[in-house]
Amino acid sequence: MTVEAALHGARVRYGPLEALHGVDLPFPAGAVTVLLGRNGAGRTSALHALAGVMRLAAGRVEWQGRDVTALSVHRRVRLGLALVPAERAVFASLTVAEHLGLAGSGTGPAPVPAATDEALELFPELTALLPRRAGTLSGGQQQLVAVARALSTGPRLLLLDEPDRGLAPAVTARLHAHLLALAAAEGRTVVLTAQSLPHGLAGAAVVHVLHRGEVGFSGEPAELGAQQAAERRPTGPGP
Fold it and tell me: Which residue intervals are annotated with compositional bias (Basic and acidic residues) in the record (predicted)?
């Protein structure tokens, strides 16, 4: 399996606290990878290290076969990366239509019909919200706008931090199905975080489980399910 991006010996620190303890995380090309773990496990730190939002204290980031550790966020975006953070992912003063227009033009808030139509086809819930400013929307609506905008850019590497936060179950299911199809049909690479493996992403290629800044498991979803089932199985008394 070809690797699109990877963290090698990655250490991330916030002052005296270390969030990632030299982890190695490969992300296969043209596939969906899910980073699992509880809050504080290091999932967001890994995602931000990939995006360049957080600089590594040690280790390196590779993408498309090159070392991009020193590249800024903006340069990574130009190479085809898109990040949807868990919070503050929209511009409060811009309307929903302007967000979708920004995704297509990259230079200003002028709407771009093709990008807007594609986003609205996937998320028709946004149609009635087009004239509203993002700052007036609920948290789930803002998340939907942020995800739609990122998808409209046609990224080669899409990073999503808990993208289903605040979304209705039906919308979440539609998003997960779209991400899997995007990877399979168009060869896009998707990395997203979650606290537990969503049912709709059982078809993901790889799952990495982080625990206190270290990798506790890496493998296919079925392997993770078998391991978790074995851990839950009661053990009887010895002979």
Answer: 230-239
CB 74 within 8 A of CB 66: no
Indicate which CATH number applies to the domain containing 74.
3.40.50.300
| 193 falls within a domain | yes
Joined together, the tokens standing for residue 72 give: 């800024």
CA distances, 115 to each of 18, 101, 118, 134, 152 (Å): 40, 7, 5, 18, 5
Reported pTM: 0.90
In sign, the C-alpha dihedral spanning 29, 86, 147, 211 is positive
Res 106: pLDDT:
42
DSSP symbol at 53: S
pLDDT score of 109:
41
Domain for residue 24, yes or no? Answer: yes
State which residues form the domain around 175. Answer: 3-232
**Average pLDDT per consecutive 10 residues, the chain (239 residues; last block may be shorter):** 95 95 97 95 96 96 96 95 92 91 49 66 92 94 94 93 93 95 94 94 94 94 79 63
Three-state secondary structure string covering 197-234: CCHHHCCCCEEEEEECCEEEEEECHHHHHHHHHHHHCC
Q: Is 107 part of any domain? A: yes
- Determine the Cα–Cα distance for residues 32 and 176; give it in Å rounded to an integer: 10
DSSP β-ladder status, 189-194 and 157-160: parallel
Q: What's the pLDDT score for residue 146?
A: 95
Domain membership flag for residue 238: no
